[in-house]
């Protein structure tokens, strides 16, 4: 009586929080972003007609790269901002309402003579 | 017995979020001209106000709010975002606002728990 059946004695395997190895690590993500920006924007000039495509493709590339990194059960948001360098003032801020234990963000800035690019990546654990 | 949330209570309503964002922008930078010394304070207050209003909705969501304020001087600006999430439950809303001296772009992302 009281046997659990074929899986008798099985442990719970659904984890409610990510282990240390599976956290959305800020530093790892920042390195990824930095490498991609360096590669894709090295000699790019700000050309108004090409920017929309470039911004969109950059955000897709970074998102796909982060998916490959293997952050299991993380929902991710990548935002890319590209602007022309003309001496204007720009300010960017972000605030998040989340579980500080499991969720995190990373950002990087790339600048050359004709443009600047800010990328912010956010990762939220899906319980 | 168990109370389940209705579909409306647990979804990201773009119109609602959009009006929250517009209100936050208006109250933080409504009639102001671009000032380098104040812009930091402005972005912070827009973002914090938006976030606090969103959390008051009481929905089971995690929120991410970003704000970019740029001075108008003829330069171009482009933003794009790419998300890996559940399309049926999560959503985003972006509001573009401008006055004579600056542009303000606020994006809010809601991810269901």
TrEMBL record, chain A:
GO-annotated cellular components: cytoplasm; cytoplasmic dynein complex
InterPro entries associated with the record: Tctex-1-like, Tctex-1-like_sf
Molecular function terms, GO-annotated: dynein intermediate chain binding
Domain of life, source organism: Eukaryota
Identification of the protein by name: Tctex1 domain containing 2
Stated family: Belongs to the dynein light chain Tctex-type family.
Species of origin: Cyanistes caeruleus
Pfam families on file: Tctex-1
Signal peptide from the UniProt entry: none
GO biological process, one term: microtubule-based movement
TrEMBL record, chain B:
One Gene Ontology CC term in the entry: cytoplasmic dynein complex
InterPro entries listed in its UniProt record: Tctex-1-like (IPR005334), Tctex-1-like_sf (IPR038586)
Gene3D superfamilies: Tctex-1
Superkingdom in the source lineage: Eukaryota
GO biological process: microtubule-based movement
GO molecular function ontology, one term from the record: dynein intermediate chain binding
Subcellular location: Cytoplasm, Cytoskeleton
UniProt keyword list: Cytoplasm, Cytoskeleton, Dynein, Microtubule, Motor protein
Stated family: Belongs to the dynein light chain Tctex-type family.
Name listed for the protein in its UniProt record: Dynein light chain Tctex-type 1
Name of the encoding gene: DYNLT1
